[in-house]
């Protein structure tokens, strides 16, 4: 190592302590984990430690005191040390010297052997430069490995989402045929035995639909792809609708069924109505399922303040089988039920409560329960109370004309699946509908160019031209020809949140997921053209 500068300044010191101090100083420099070199005001090398030579092995045999920094990097260039300088050596030298003139710079430099150095230049008060080199090859390799793992995880997540979307579509399409044909058949003349068998088909179809929704919801929550909506809705109406779904089931079992909404909760609020109803229907469904005698009740009321903010409290109570503390501890886990034995008589996936608790937490609330074996259960949902004013046009819907006065509604249906087309045909045969069916988006677009329709029912996933492309082309055709906007409903098995967003962006007005309810489809077919006509007239 070269001698240390400024030794003359220490001439008054006793020679032996001075030599020992210099030796200790050299030892300290060599012990540093980073390479260090000192250059004088003329940018000439004065001293360096062993680590500086180690991180620059191609230069170590050429390092001499007095050589300039420019000479050092020229040696490195000749050795092919600087990968990013190849082919642009002069430009690279100018950039490196220019950056070195700054008072304080730090850069990452890739060198031979796929190694990386972090180089920091610091100027001293006397005009010299201290250069510190740190080997960050391991850090770079770790970062690259993490980036690769991240990309692989993102690719796996994307593949998982695509798989779920495809499975949703492939399962919902035949399921829509089963449920739709059963609903259409229920309106025909059947014997008692036939009606009983049909009810079993419908019940099994609904069970499959619930299981499919539970699995897809769980996957979306886990991947962070489930988002809550922000809408203003009538809380009392939403609670009553959620309860009404299981009122007949409770009655068939001879259970008393109570719904109580206190005046403080019978109001308009802001939140996600669909997800709130999903939680409540799951709780009420479980209560009816696990209760043989007694009652089931649903209560909605203002809850206690939390951190100074008001809350809403929903309580679902029953006189069912109940459960113990051990069961309570695992009840909100996935695929867990109170009735978990192999001989169990109650069905279900065991996903509903896990999803419901996660939804409650996403809303900023919580879901808990109280119970004892044979003593019934109480599930309590608490969410923030975000009061809202009633919308001006809330609750208004197009009035229905008398059956005899109903005009014929021209409906275009685009769906590549023949069973689905038959299901829609059978359902719409109950109304004054003239139905035109086509097999793909291109034929739907041509039909719109050739004639007028009051409503379009469009599948999303079709050959030749998909539904989203067809909608965009139809909207462009309407704009070019100065035509009114025809209501379009996505009637599709693509039911994930991103599918709804994509449909809205393309120009769809509503999204009805398969398997759909016959009554809901009829309601849309009758009401949407009238609502569109009323909007044009206004």
Description:
With 538 residues, the chain is α/β, with parallel strands linked by helices. It contains 17 helices and 17 strands. The protein has helices spanning 15-31, 50-55, 57-60, 69-78, 89-100, 137-186, 192-223, 235-244, 247-252, 273-289, 325-330, 352-362, 418-428, 441-450, 467-481, 497-506, 518-537; strands spanning 35-39, 45-48, 104-111, 115-123, 129-135, 231-234, 256-261, 268-271, 295-306, 309-318, 366-371, 377-384, 409-414, 433-438, 455-458, 488-492, 510-513. Helix 6 (137-186) crosses helix 13, helix 7 crosses helix 12 and helix 8 runs parallel beside helix 10. The longest helix has 50 residues, at 137-186. Mean pLDDT is 81; it is low at 1-11, 339-349 and 393-404.
Oligomer: single chain
What is the SS-derived class?
alpha/beta
Quick check: average pLDDT?
81
Number of strands: 17
Helix count equals 17
Shape: elongated
Low-confidence region ranges = 1-11, 339-349, 393-404
Lateral arrangement of strands in the main beta sheet: 2-1-5-4-3
Largest sheet: 5 strands, antiparallel
Helix content estimate: 40-55%
Give the percentage of residues in beta strands.
15-25%
User: What is the terminal separation in angstroms?
Assistant: 92 Å
Estimated radius of gyration? 37 Å
């Amino acid at each position: 190592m070269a001698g240390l500068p400024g030794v003359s300044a220490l001439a008054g010191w006793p020679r032996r302590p001075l030599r020992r101090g210099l030796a200790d100083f050299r030892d300290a420099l060599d012990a540093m984990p980073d390479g260090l070199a000192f250059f004088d005001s003329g940018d000439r090398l004065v001293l360096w430690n062993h680590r500086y030579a180690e991180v620059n092995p191609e230069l170590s045999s050429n390092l001499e005191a007095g050589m300039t920094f420019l000479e050092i990097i020229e040696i490195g260039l000749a050795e092919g040390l600087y990968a990013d300088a190849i082919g642009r050596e002069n430009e690279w030298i100018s950039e490196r010297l220019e950056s070195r003139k700054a008072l304080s710079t730090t850069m990452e430099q890739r060198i031979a052997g796929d190694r990386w150095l972090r180089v920091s230049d610091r100027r001293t008060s006397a005009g010299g430069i201290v250069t510190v080199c740190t080997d960050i090859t391991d850090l770079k390799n770790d970062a690259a490995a993490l980036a690769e793992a991240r990309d692989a995880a993102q690719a796996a997540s994307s593949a998982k989402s695509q798989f779920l979307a495809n499975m949703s579509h492939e399962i919902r399409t035949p399921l829509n045929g089963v449920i739709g044909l059963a609903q259409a058949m229920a309106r025909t003349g059947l014997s008692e035995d036939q009606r009983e068998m049909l009810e079993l088909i419908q019940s099994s179809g609904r069970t499959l639909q619930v299981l499919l929704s539970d699995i897809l919801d769980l996957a979306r929550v886990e991947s962070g792809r489930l988002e809550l909506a922000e809408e203003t809705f009538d809380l009392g109406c939403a609670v009553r609708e959620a309860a009404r779904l299981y009122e007949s089931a409770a009655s068939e079992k001879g259970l008393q069924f109570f719904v109580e909404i206190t005046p403080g909760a019978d109001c308009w609020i802001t939140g996600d109505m669909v997800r709130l109803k999903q939680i409540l229907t799951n709780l009420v469904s479980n209560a009816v399922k696990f209760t043989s005698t007694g009652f089931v009740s649903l209560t909605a009321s203002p809850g206690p303040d939390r951190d100074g903010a008001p809350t809403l409290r929903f309580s679902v109570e029953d006189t069912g089988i109940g459960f113990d503390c051990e069961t309570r501890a695992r009840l909100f886990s996935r695929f867990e039920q109170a009735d978990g034995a192999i001989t169990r008589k109650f069905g279900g996936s065991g996903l509903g409560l896990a999803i419901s608790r996660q939804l409650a937490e996403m809303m900023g609330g919580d879901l808990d329960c109280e119970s004892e074996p044979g003593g019934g259960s109480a599930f309590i949902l608490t969410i923030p109370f975000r009061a809202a004013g009633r919308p001006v046009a809330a609750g208004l819907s197009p009035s229905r004309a008398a059956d005899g006065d109903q005009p014929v509604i021209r409906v275009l249906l685009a769906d590549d699946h023949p069973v689905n087309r038959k299901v829609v045909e059978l359902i719409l045969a109950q109304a004054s509908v003239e139905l035109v069916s086509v097999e793909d988006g291109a034929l739907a677009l041509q039909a719109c160019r050739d004639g007028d329709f009051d409503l379009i029912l469009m599948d999303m996933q079709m050959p030749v031209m998909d539904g989203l492309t067809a909608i965009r082309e139809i909207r462009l055709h309407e704009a070019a020809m100065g035509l009114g906007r025809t209501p379009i409903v996505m009637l599709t098995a693509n039911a994930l949140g991103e599918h709804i967003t994509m449909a809205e962006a393309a120009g769809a007005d509503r999204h009805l997921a398969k398997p759909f309810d016959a009554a809901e489809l009829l309601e849309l077919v009758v009401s949407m053209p009238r609502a569109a006509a009323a909007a044009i007239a206004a």
